[in-house]
Write a structure and sequence with these properties.
Elements lengths: L1 E8 L2 E8 L6 H20 L5 H21 L3 E2 L2 H10 L22 E11 L5 E5 L4 E4 L14 E6 L5 E5 L5 E5 L2
Parallel strand pairs: 1-3
Antiparallel strand pairs: 1-2, 4-5, 4-7, 5-6, 6-9, 7-8, 8-9
Helix pairs in contact: 1-2
Length: 181
């Protein structure tokens, strides 16, 4: 799913695109993001117009921006929404998130804490855990846990080496996991 987002923060206009798609789709998403930036660039370009033309230029450019926003081609987001999107995408290797940090210090999500909505076993006997919010994580090692995960249990998931993750359930020994959805 491709969504184009523009953030209006502190009087400056930055163009953002969020890609929740396979990495193979990334080059196409970059092309689309650059095309959508033209709507925002038109607003910025109006500053260079002479005084007599500036207001008419702004009106026309803002009308295009409003149309793009209404059509869903441009979405206005704030830093908190960006943080939440990164948190929800934790566990996926999405190359397109780097541009979200333009104009700000990059904030990498290294770990999350959440509650279990549902826990069950795969046919291989490994844990399949659904967190509140719908993220599904699957155990990839054969480590046992002392107390089985249950609804309401707290998990902490943190990045490990080589694009792997550790999950600690109710402060027990960590198990290796991967994100399924």
């Amino acid at each position: 799913m491709n969504r184009f987002q523009a953030a209006l923060t502190g009087g400056s206009i930055a163009t953002l695109a969020v890609l929740i798609a396979a990495p193979a789709a990334f080059p196409r998403a970059q092309q689309l993001a650059q095309a959508s930036a033209a709507v925002v660039d038109e607003v910025i370009a109006c500053r260079q117009r002479p005084d007599g033309e500036r207001l008419a230029c702004y009106d026309a450019a803002v009308d295009k921006l409003i149309h793009a926003r209404t059509a869903g081609d441009v979405v206005v987001v704030d830093r908190d929404q960006i943080k939440e999107a990164k948190r929800q995408a934790f566990g996926f290797e999405i190359p397109a998130f780097g541009f979200l940090d333009r104009g700000a210090k990059p904030e990498a999500v290294e770990r999350i804490t959440a509650r279990i909505e549902h826990a069950g076993r795969t046919p291989e006997g490994r844990w399949l855990i659904t967190l509140e919010g719908g993220a599904v994580w699957e155990q990839t090692d054969d480590e046992a846990v002392d107390q089985p995960p249950r609804q309401g249990s707290t998990v902490e998931i943190r990045k490990a080496a080589l694009q792997s993750y550790f999950m600690k359930i109710d402060n027990q020994r960590s198990i290796r996991v991967k994100r399924r959805n």
